[in-house]
Amino acid sequence: MNQDVLLNAGWIDYVFVLIYFVFVIGIGWLLKSKAKTGEDFFLSGRSIPSWITSLAFLSANLGALEVLGMAANGAEYGWMTTHFYWIGAVPAMLFLGLYMMPFYYVSRVR
C-alpha cells in the first residue's frame, strides 16, 4: 500500500481557502471593538447563558473525529467499538459535571 499521499489542489481550492481566510479575518476585524480585554475575548464578558455553554461542551464531544471515527470503527469491528465512548467520554463528562462544575460556579466562569 502506497503511503505517499499528495494533495493535488487546483486553483479553485486555493480560491476557497483564500475566501475562508478573508472571511474569518474580516469578522475579526469588524468585531475587534467588542472585545476590550482577555476576559471579553475568552469568556464573552461572562454573558453567555449556561445552556449555550452546555451545548458548546456537548458539541466538543461530537466533532467530526468522533462521528466519523466511530462510524469507521463500527464498520470495521462492529458494535464492540462503543466501549471507547463508554470508558472514555461518559466517565469524563460525569467527572466534569460532578466534580469540576462546582469549581466553575464558585469562580464564576461560564
TrEMBL record:
Superkingdom of the organism of origin: Bacteria
Annotated GO CC locations: plasma membrane
Keywords noted in UniProt: Membrane, Transmembrane, Transmembrane helix
Transmembrane segments: 12-31, 51-72, 84-106
Compartments reported by the entry: Membrane
Pfam families membership: SSF
GO molecular function term, any single one: D-glucose:sodium symporter activity
Membrane topology reported for the UniProt record: Multi-pass membrane protein
Family membership: Belongs to the sodium:solute symporter (SSF) (TC 2.A.21) family.
Protein name stated in the entry: Na+/galactose cotransporter
Annotated source species: Polycladomyces abyssicola
